[in-house]
Design brief:
With about 350 residues, the protein is α/β, with parallel strands linked by helices. It has helices at about 30-35, 80-95, 115-130, 145-155, 175-180, 190-200, 210-215, 215-225, 245-255, 265-275, 320-325; strands spanning about 35-40, 50-55, 65-70, 95-100, 135-145, 165-170, 230-235, 295-305, 305-310, 315, 350. The protein has one domain (about 10-350): Rossmann fold (3-Layer(aba) Sandwich), CATH 3.40.50.
Length: about 350
């Protein structure tokens, strides 16, 4: 099956751009990525936003799944390694792929879950739908760290778009993460608090509504009610060997799970402090081929349309497991948590 890159840029000479639309600054990226770089016009502020877009040849004639891959907290679209695994999977499986910039590093008001960043992803999905045939029941989103933050935020803010999302070590409460980052603690860094203050216009005490608006926990009930499938994974040592305490993932699970399945705050605190799971919560379920001994499962819980896995590891993702999960989800159906007989695990350290 021959696959080709589809790269259709909006051109100023067509007269379709608003007078204030400005093209993105030229980027120094790999020539192969430059070939699939497009400019998507923001329907919020009229600017042109860079985005990678690839689709298989068959998407010209029949609907294909679409996956949105996201960069991490401190980077932008020029960090192409953040998109590589997702693009490779799309090419192998005949899916379309988007790699939006969503306003770059999370240190400016439009970025960091701001409305412009959210709209950039919506606009990118609509761009793909306008240029090729996309199956609306199979639109997915995936990311780690800052990309995990944005994955869960998008599921909550636009559950009508996505069938499912996979988030690795996500930040889910920006006010809490601001406080986490100020603690004198291995793995943390005050720079994140400074970035949050630049994006939100002040501290959580000064701008509480801004921090709340940009936090996935504020919106995840929308995803729960809509039945959007979610796959959340983090390493048990994150927050010590990494910058995002595991409680962020636990609380995202709680927001999406049935009340009876939620994890108590005292247990969440115990795991964060000791990097050990209380014996009553230790995982004893079936083997998962995406989590071998090196990445063994310490805790796993599945409820409603969400699965949360706490694995051996730090601030890292396990994209093969997440992509396999996404491949089986269809909008409007209950989440499919079945496991394949085999699978190749891959712990991928995530950028800051």
């Amino acid at each position: 099956m021959r696959k080709v890159a589809i790269a259709c840029s909006l051109l100023a000479g067509t007269g379709l751009l608003a007078a204030n639309a400005k093209p993105a600054k030229p980027a120094k990226i790999d020539p192969a990525w430059a070939k699939i770089l497009v400019q998507v016009k923001s329907t919020l502020d009229g600017t042109l936003q860079p985005c990678y877009f690839w689709a298989p040849e068959e998407a010209k004639t029949k609907p294909v799944p679409l996956i949105v891959g996201l960069h991490t907290w401190s980077y932008d679209y020029k960090a192409t390694s953040h998109y590589q695994t997702v693009l490779d999977y799309a090419k192998k499986n005949g899916w379309a792929m988007l790699g939006p910039n969503f306003r770059g590093p999370n240190k400016t008001p439009p970025a960091c879950g701001g409305d412009p960043a959210v709209q950039d992803i919506v606009d990118a999905v609509n761009y793909a739908k306008a240029h090729v045939k996309i199956d609306p029941a199979r639109v997915y989103i995936v990311g780690g760290s800052g990309g995990g933050h944005m994955t869960l935020l998008m599921l909550g803010r636009h559950p009508e778009i996505f069938a499912a999302g996979a988030a690795f070590c996500p930040i889910t409460d920006l006010a809490r993460w601001h406080a986490d980052s100020l603690l004198k603690h291995p793995g943390r860094g005050k720079n994140y608090a400074k970035m949050l203050e630049k994006a939100c216009g002040g501290t959580p005490a000064e701008k509480p509504d801004e921090y709340k608006h940009r936090s996935p926990l504020t919106w995840l009930d929308n995803a729960r009610k809509a039945g959007v499938a979610a796959y959340i994974v983090t390493g048990i040592h994150d927050g010590w060997k990494g910058s995002v305490p595991v409680g962020h993932s636990f609380r995202a699970f709680n927001a999406l799970a049935n009340p009876k399945d939620r994890v108590a705050e005292e247990d969440i605190s115990a795991v964060e402090e000791t990097r050990k799971v209380p014996s009553a919560l230790a995982y004893t379920g079936p083997s998962d081929p995406f989590f071998p001994d090196k990445m063994r499962i310490h805790f796993r819980r599945t409820s409603a349309n969400v699965r949360f896995t706490l694995m051996e590891g730090g601030h890292a993702g396990n994209y093969p497991g997440g992509l396999d999960f996404l491949s089986r989800q269809v909008k409007g159906r209950p989440a499919d948590f079945s496991l394949p007989e085999s699978g190749k695990a891959s712990e991928e350290a995530l950028g800051k």
